[in-house]
Amino acid sequence: MRSIVRNHRRSIPWIMATSAFVEAVDMLVPILVGIIIDVGIVRGSLAITLLGAAGIFVMRLISTWVWTLMFTASQRARLFERHRLRVAVTGAVLDPRSRPIERPAGEVLSIATSDADKASDIMDMLPWAFPASAVVVGSGVWLAVLDPWLGVATLVGIAVMVLVIRVISPVLSARYDAQQSRAADAAATATDLVHGLRVLQGLGVQSRARTQYRRRSRIALDAALVNARYSGVSSGLTTLVTAAMMAAVVIIAAQRTVAGDMTIGTLIAVVGVARSNMGMLQGLSGIPIWWASMSTSADRVRRLLADLGRTVDDPALTIGHLATARDERGEARPGERRAGTGGLHLRGVGAGSLQGLDMEVPDGRVIALACADARDADAVVEAVSGRAEHTGVHLGDTEVTSSTRFATRADLLVEPHVVDLFDGTVREQLATRAPASDPTDGSDDSWADAALHAAGADDLLRILPEGYDTRILDRGANLSGGQRQRIALARAVASDAPVLVLQDPTTAVDAVTEQHIAEALVAARRVPDRATLLVTRAPALLREADEVLYVRGGRITARADHQDLMDRDDYREMVRR
């Protein structure tokens, strides 16, 4: 929230000044009405009455114009900050230089949307709360000048309201934190259930899944109801205080008027000021609820960014930077194919379960890595992805780490076992990482044909109703597991990355299709300036690879072609499982 305020430090002063002017005019109008009544109506001066009415009209007109300027500026700042926070969180999550986090996708989505929106409300509250408070205090001073007891009644009411706010605010903040956490849990559950809908239907456990979501949703609802009760108590108390204050002021002023100490115009002015005060104080009474919601949401955004190793003021997460930043798509200049990097080299890699792994994946070669333990395979993919410092993984002469991963991702594509497809057509899926020189408007799909062929997915164009224009739902919900896997593989091949790492790319296809994929994939990638690493146990891929490295206990225990390694009992047993 400090960052939000700091971002608008030049505009906030004049916004608050114009807001104070608008609130002061609202408070001044009943005072002027009282003066006009005493000087114009009571004394029978039509000219003063008409001039006074015209003056009030002009003043209200100017006030409305100033309010329009102030409101437009404050809302523009609020919406800008809402957008900035959303972009910063999304950019941090997608940036490969960010630290990996173990948070459900639904929770991250909730923070990037709901919490980012609420945190930016500080730009809605700040321009009004302080000017309104100053005007209320000023009106209290004016009432005290008229009559000390009027001032006492007003200031006592203000003091009691401040005390109520001070007591309730910490409680509301804690409650809002709990509510947002429960809401994020419910969103995470819903996201997981939607993504796993096919699996749930296959297992026939939809009713159990619905029960689980209803339970999480009910917990979130209960937390929201608790918040509503506390908010109601807060609003009720402040309404009671302001109503008592107004009643006391009106009674005192009426007594002074009956006694002849006040004119009828002054009485009307006092009642009008007290009424305006009551409205402003009721608005100010919502500050604890407002503040609890904003501060809680802002803290949740801050904690997520901190977990990612980033801050909201990170220069790489600004709107200006992200709006102009472009991913390198594979060529030095448009139309020029990206050169090789010198291959992939792992030197003494000890990440995860690995024990000083050494291996080379030179240009022009397709190397298969067969791991007896699946944890070793995951550790290799994690290390190659550059998620840790000093991993010992090199792309040519450049070490791949969390700090260099952003710069090297044009030369290195790691396609993990888990397949992620996005909402869009088949052509758009394949074009995600395709070089910019490839025509992706449908005028020439030869590049896509080659990618589908390498992934053994030629038949998809005959199966899918609209070919390349067939729309794929989020995460490929309208495709089978094998179809999703082959489209993801085709997308990876279409990138023409100098170094390509694939983890178990054929686990969802049958043996015949797997053999076809192995032959086409290796043929497509076995070119002089392209290096390919296959992390797999699939016999067809192992058989087509130029060399197989057998990993056991975190170390390479053998290297040869597949047929020679089949003479080893442990290797043969691993492949046949």
Automatic annotation (TrEMBL):
Residues 339-577 form the ABC transporter domain. It is found in: Cell membrane. One of its GO terms (molecular function) is ATP binding. Its main location: membrane. It is a multi-pass membrane protein. The chain crosses the membrane at residues 12-37, 49-73, 128-146, 152-172, 237-254. Pfam families: ABC_membrane (PF00664), ABC_tran (PF00005). Keywords: ATP-binding, Membrane, Nucleotide-binding, Transmembrane, Transmembrane helix. Residues 14-271 form the ABC transmembrane type-1 domain. InterPro entries: ABC1_TM_dom (IPR011527), ABC1_TM_sf (IPR036640), ABC_transporter-like_ATP-bd (IPR003439), ABC_transporter-like_CS (IPR017871), P-loop_NTPase (IPR027417), Type_1_exporter (IPR039421). PANTHER family: ATP-BINDING CASSETTE SUB-FAMILY B, ATP-BINDING CASSETTE SUB-FAMILY B MEMBER 6. This is ABC transporter ATP-binding protein. It comes from Brachybacterium halotolerans.
